[in-house]
Design brief:
With 212 residues, the protein is an alpha/beta fold. It contains five helices and seven strands, in the order E-H-E-H-E-E-H-E-E-H-E-H. Helix 3 crosses helix 4. The two termini are 40 Å apart.
Amino acid sequence: MKTTNIILASSSAYRRELLSRLQLPFAVDVPDIDESPLPGESPAATALRLAREKAAAVAARHPDALVIGSDQVATLDEEQIGKPGNHANALAQLQKMRGREVVFHTALCLWDGRNNTHQLEDIQTVVKFRDLSDAELDAYLRIEQPYDCAGSAKNEALGIAILERIDSSDPTALTGLPLIALTSMLRAAGVGFFPSASRPSTTPANPDQSGV
């Protein structure tokens, strides 16, 4: 089977680390798109649109490749919560979310440049934040500095301590790249993960016995 190039359309180190778990060779190309939500756009629609636009932008530069685009939007009371960017914004986010349930929409797009088709899915994660004091939240932020994480929730590190519960069909979705959904999409696109397992055996069941 011909090897298909796989490209991650992202500048995120978290997504690169997650994708490397699949032990597939891949390249990285950073898309240059406007990630601002559109007026009146729902959080899920924003995440899906941006995941698709990221994948499409990179696919245009790499014909015949499989391009992975992903985007995450957190929402509380239907209000989008993005990347805080700095300490003050992050603290304000966490103060608003403490003791509350927040829905994270992690959208995933796999663009197949061989036929210009794409698969698209929104994986939702419901996160219950602990009701922590301002001092605890401030200390967490100064240790982790998760200013590039939607909702300031860096769950793969100390951020797990500010969370009370995570409900999701895909445990990697909250970190930014839903690997269960991605492996399903890649398999549908013809990518194999266990090539040796698909080879039929030609060895007789009982090689020491012969028919009479």
